[in-house]
Amino acid sequence: QVRLVESGGGLVQPGGSLRLSCAASGFTFSRYTMNWYQQAPGKGRELVASITSGGGSTNYADSVKGRFTISRDNAKNTLYLQMNSLKPEDTAVYYCVYRNYWGQGTQVTVSS
Fold first, then answer.
1. Sign (positive or negative) of CA dihedral 17, 97, 106, 48
2. What is the spatial distance between Cα 47 and Cα 70, in angstroms, rounded to a whole number?
3. Does residue 40 sit in helix, strand or coil?
4. Which of 14, 41, 58, 61 has the smallest CB count inside 10 Å?
5. Could you give the CA distance from residue 50 to residue 41 in angstroms, rounded to a whole number?
6. How far apart (Å, rounded) are the C-alpha atoms in residues 68 and 73?
7. What confidence tens digit (pLDDT) does each residue in 40-76 have?
8. Residue 112: CB partners within 8 Å, gap ≥ 6?
9. For the segment 65-104, what is each residue's pLDDT rounded down to a tens digit?
10. On the CB side of 87, how many CA atoms lie within 13 Å of its CA?
11. What is the rounded distance in angstroms from the CA atom of residue 2 to the CA atom of residue 10?
């Protein structure tokens, strides 16, 4: 069955960096667009970034453009999100998403 397991979240100071990973299994990872979503406290889930199957095209929410980078390693069935210049408003649970399958999420907290 499809399994998506996120890791790499944590507590970081404003201006800091984190790298999220998502280990995927149960489907042919290299064939599909993958996504990162976030859910901030008291808000709905929002798309943060997407990457096409081969990694040749990416899209970002305006709020993270220039600070976050989505990437993938199809040989390792792994999706990444490099998060730089983090802001308190980036605090959220981050989810790896394939079609309508969601991981369990990883908490990112940006606070001094």
1. positive
2. 12
3. coil
4. 41
5. 22
6. 17
7. 999 999 999 999 999 999 999 999 999 999 999 999 9
8. 13, 14
9. 999 999 999 999 999 999 999 999 999 999 999 999 999 9
10. 9
11. 25
